[in-house]
From TrEMBL:
Annotated organism of origin: Clostridium cellulovorans (strain ATCC 35296 / DSM 3052 / OCM 3 / 743B)
Family matches, as InterPro entries: AA_adenyl_dom, ACP-like_sf, AMP-bd_C, AMP-bd_C_sf, AMP-binding_CS, AMP-dep_synth/lig_dom, ANL_N_sf, PP-bd_ACP
Keyword Signal carried by entry: no
Sorted UniProt keywords: Phosphopantetheine, Phosphoprotein
CDD domains: A_NRPS (cd05930)
Cofactor(s) this protein cannot do without: pantetheine 4'-phosphate
Superkingdom field: Bacteria
Protein's UniProt name: Amino acid adenylation domain protein
Classification via NCBIfam families: AA-adenyl-dom
Residue span, Carrier domain: 532-607
């Protein structure tokens, strides 16, 4: 069918149901009509500024703008290249130089980074920003800057040949340069069509988007729902990916029906599942990227029964998303490894030995994939493309190509494919392909390193991690190596463990003896850098850390991430701590300051101040208002002045309602919080009743029908608990990740810094001087979304003006 393409399917959905929600990220909703309009506008810009078949880099956060840009690029006949904004700048520059694209689409928050990269590129880069930059002239010296809102929308011409390329994704390269893989329209559509048809997905499907935009499974998350007429659901921030409790809550609140994830994330989520009714709307969990074990399936079924269908998928990026699938059943709990199953339509598995002869049933050989729906191979690397995209040795058609995967496996009697390992030194960590040689090259570039070998290991939970053995002329600490590597490698490629050795063991034929190498364990010498535990609680926590990390020695000030920890191990650590000290440490607190010393203080404060802790109150806020930063930083958002005219209006309200000025302002603030956080009951801290202390105020909107009843309620309010100010100045009181402490202050002096106490996540302070009211806002930008806080402050000021004018 000539007009059958992904972009045409999406356009057809837009014409049939323009008001249907296509993309939802927190409270940001994008309809199919809006997606169509914006992607057409982007396509029009690209047709005017892009030569045919050229590359467009997308440096955008996950969300509607990124998806609109992807669709716009393929409508214009271009090739989109997603760049994760969080990747090191050096790696982004490597990717851009490898592809030599014409255009970068970004947002104003990344223009500084784009300009920095552009200085290293010979030609002047054309940059389209999806929002309005504050200082346009600041950037035009290095880039040709265009603004989305200045482009005129034109009807899109979607007639693109399906054998053309439409995207580039990178995989790790053994030379130290990432390999760029060119994906085709027809191959992408083939997989998307297959998944929709195989699992009977329609316009009711709600698909989660959990994968980074820099990896090709992102395409599954996006195009399966958009082609079927369903909805893409994107978490408002990535914090939920390291907080299983919040992730489970988000899945349920969003009524997600399909999830694509890696097995390591599944294992973590299962640990936090409460009962078999935990996912009432979820139908399928599609697993890919790592070997799935029978024990993982057993744990899942023990918790959830058969309410959700697990599906194992397999297929390298080079063959487009996935080419094999297996529906998992209860019988599979007895297996060691779960098969990857049978091929999807128009695909065949060929198991060949070293002589490229077919292996017998049950005989292990290298897996080759035969399908016409492959990618176009590696950009700028014809030699490597020829080495792995081979002519079928059992046919005469030169167009009949098989892909050499490097995976080892065998075929069962019933035709199912099972993988057993790799034929080379490529590994997968958390579902991401990594060439160990690329890591070795980067380590060798570090100061003082003589030799380096990277290997993959597995912890007690069978989660894989990278260990680097190295030789050096001088003492180089693992933290120093990590700091150097993080400048050029993404986080997932930085080794979790570094072991210094005298020399690299070699085989008789001069190759690295990896079997001997992995037998060498880290020698953990006694030294002053390891601070020993000082009490029973710290000692118990040290023991837990040793078990989780597989270490024999650890100090109470050691950073979890510098001694072999990663985000998945952190979740395991939290689960262990929570078992022994229930509900006393939130995982985000642990993430922000991952040391035993800090952890012990959190638990100790809870135990030693139990009476106070039980009486503290916090407000739950929706996850879209939260951010994940490794900081606890209180910043001043803004300062507003309410001058004489508005002051007179407010005074008129107070006179008519017979209330004080602060009662009116607290009522306005409370109502703003209620509407913003969708809360029927509020609790906040304030000195409004007694400026020498702070009390907890509880405001129940259940019996409040209008503003007069709200004024009356607050006028008669009493504190449910009171504290001295010093008691709450400490920031160590534990709370859940979605709970915040809010302060309403009256006449606080800036110099005493009380309203900026780290105990409070959001604080407002009012100072009245004659007929001038000064209102200052501060918030914890390590926990709360800055844009959302700006909206909240604006709503508060706007509400004051609206309500006060109604009484004039």
């Amino acid at each position: 069918m000539k007009n059958d393409s992904i972009q045409n399917r999406i356009s057809l959905n837009a014409s049939k149901m323009p008001d249907k929600i296509a993309i939802q990220k927190g409270n940001e909703l994008t309809t199919y009509g809006e997606l169509e309009k914006k992607s057409n506008t982007i396509a029009e810009f690209l047709r005017q500024n892009l030569s045919d078949d050229k590359k467009v880099f997308l440096m955008l956060d996950k969300g509607a703008e990124l998806i609109e840009s992807m669709v716009g690029v393929i409508k214009a006949g271009g090739i989109f290249v997603p760049l994760d904004p969080n990747f090191p700048e050096k790696r982004q520059l490597l990717m851009i130089n490898e592809c030599l694209g014409d255009v970068i689409i970004t947002s104003s928050k990344y223009l500084e980074k784009v300009c920095s990269i552009a200085k290293c590129i010979v030609s002047k880069v054309k940059v389209l920003t999806m929002d309005e930059p504050e200082d346009y002239n600041k950037y035009v010296e290095h880039i040709s800057l265009y603004k989305f809102n200045e482009i005129e929308e034109q009807p899109s011409n979607n007639e693109i040949l399906l054998n053309k390329n439409c995207y580039i994704y990178f995989t790790s390269g053994s030379t130290g340069i990432p390999k760029a893989i060119l994906g085709r329209h027809r191959s992408l559509l083939h997989y998307i069509d297959w998944e929709i048809r195989e699992f009977n997905l329609d316009d009711n499907c709600k698909v989660s988007q959990l994968t980074s935009q820099s990896f090709d499974p992102f395409l599954r998350d996006i195009f399966v729902p958009l082609v079927s007429g369903g909805t893409v659901y994107i978490p408002d921030n990535d914090a939920i990916l390291i907080n299983p409790e919040i992730l489970i809550k988000w899945i349920n609140e969003s009524s997600i029906s399909v999830i694509h994830m890696v097995p390591s994330l599944l294992k973590v989520v299962v640990e936090y599942v409460k009962d078999k009714n935990s996912f009432p709307s979820l139908k399928y969990i599609m697993l890919a990227g790592e070997m799935l074990r029978g024990n993982d399936v057993k744990n899942f079924i023990n918790k959830l029964g058969n309410s959700v269908q697990l599906v194992n998928l397999y297929g390298p990026t080079e063959t487009t998303l996935a080419k094999f699938f297996y529906r998992i059943s209860e019988d599979d709990v007895k297996r060691d490894r779960i098969p990857v199953g049978k091929p999807i339509d128009h695909t065949e598995a060929m198991i060949l030995n070293e002589n490229q002869m077919k292996c017998r049933i049950g005989e292990v050989g290298e897996v080759y994939i035969r399908t016409p729906f492959i990618t176009s191979g590696y950009l700028n690397n014809k030699e490597l493309t020829r080495q792995v995209f081979l002519k079928n040795p059992f046919g005469n058609n030169p167009a009949d190509i098989i892909y050499k995967t490097g995976d080892l496996g065998f075929i069962h009697n019933d035709g199912k494919l099972e993988l057993v390992g790799r034929a080379d030194h490529q590994v997968k960590i958390r579902g991401i392909r990594i060439e160990l040689g690329e890591i070795e090259n980067k380590v060798l570039a570090c100061n003082g390193i003589k030799d380096a070998v990277a290997v993959d290991k597995a912890d007690r939970m069978n989660n894989k991690y990278i260990c680097c053995y190295y030789t050096a002329e001088e003492e180089i600490s693992p933290s120093s190596l990590r700091e150097q590597l993080i400048q050029s490698l993404p986080e997932y490629m930085v080794p979790s463990q570094f072991i210094k050795i005298e020399k690299i063991p070699m085989t008789p034929n001069g190759k690295v003896d990896r079997k001997e190498l992995i037998k060498i364990q880290a020698v953990e010498e006694e030294n002053s850098s390891h601070v020993p535990p000082s009490n029973e609680l710290e000692q118990r926590l040290v023991d837990i850390w040793k078990e989780v990390l597989g270490l024999t020695q650890i100090g109470i000030t050691d950073n979890f991430f510098n001694v072999g920890g990663n985000s998945l191990l952190l979740v395991q650590l939290h689960a262990r701590v929570d078992t022994e000290y229930p509900n006393q440490v939130d995982i985000m607190e642990l993430y922000k300051k991952p040391t035993i010393q800090h952890l012990a203080r959190l638990i100790g404060n809870t135990v030693n101040n139990k009476e106070i802790e039980l009486n503290l109150k916090f407000l739950k806020v929706p996850y879209e208002y939260l951010v994940m930063k490794n900081t606890n930083n209180i910043v001043e958002l803004a300062e507003f002045n309410i001058e004489s005219k508005d002051y007179e209006n407010i005074s008129a309200v107070c006179s008519e309602e017979r209330i004080e000025l602060y009662t009116f302002l607290l009522a306005m603030y409370s109502y703003t919080l209620k509407e913003t956080f969708e809360a029927d009951e509020l609790c906040l801290y304030s000195n409004i009743l007694d400026e020498t202390s702070v009390g907890i105020l509880n405001i129940d909107f259940g019996n409040i029908s209008d503003f007069s009843s709200l004024f009356e309620s607050i006028h008669g309010i009493r504190a449910i608990e009171s504290f001295s100010k010093d008691q709450l100045m400490d920031s160590n009181y534990s709370r859940k990740v979605d709970e915040v402490a809010i302060y309403f202050g009256v006449n606080e002096r800036k110099e005493d810094n009380y309203v900026r106490s780290k105990f409070y996540d959001l604080a407002i302070n009012l100072v009245v001087d004659k007929e001038l009211i000064t209102i200052s806002f501060s918030y914890n930008d390590g926990k709360l979304n800055s844009a959302k806080m700006e909206e909240l402050a604006s709503r508060f000021i706007e509400l004051i003006q609206i309500i006060s004018q109604q009484y004039v």
